[in-house]
Amino acid sequence: MKIDNDDKLSKRLERVIHWSVRTLSILMVFVIVMGVLDVAWILYQRMITPPIYILTISDMLATFGAFMAVLIAIEIFINITIYLRENVIHVKIVMATALMAIARKVIIIDVEEMDVMYLFAISAVALSMSVGYWLIHQLPRQSHLDE
């Protein structure tokens, strides 16, 4: 009798989680649209600021950072939709998203303002994420070669 009640409870809890993930998906679309509008606004502001229609390096870096933030949000949306479809989290996609996030940080970082230890930490994270991503891509080949 107790097992049946636990099964009903776990099914209800799974439904709550499923609907929560759907809600996150809807909210992420909102974030993506707002991010695109923000990128457009940043570009507009940069283009009308003297010198008009010319982007400086710092303008481009700010724009790249905004672009990358939207791309990261899209990657997170993809993670959510795959989870909804397959009910599993794909480590490859999560690693790709994390790599994109650390790449964004590297692109927009102002090395003259950062502490050396912070730069070493960012480097270590970027290197370890890259190696982890490479290893994940190597695993299917290795198991295929072993057969």
UniProtKB/TrEMBL annotation:
Keywords: Cell membrane, Membrane, Transmembrane, Transmembrane helix. It holds the Pfam family PsiE. The keyword Membrane applies. Its main location: membrane. It comes from the Bacteria. The chain crosses the membrane at residues 21-44, 91-111, 117-136. InterPro entries: P_starv_induced_PsiE-like. It is found in: Cell membrane. Signal peptide: none annotated. It is a multi-pass membrane protein. This is Phosphate-starvation-inducible PsiE family protein. It comes from Photobacterium atrarenae. The lineage of its organism: Bacteria, Pseudomonadati, Pseudomonadota, Gammaproteobacteria, Vibrionales.
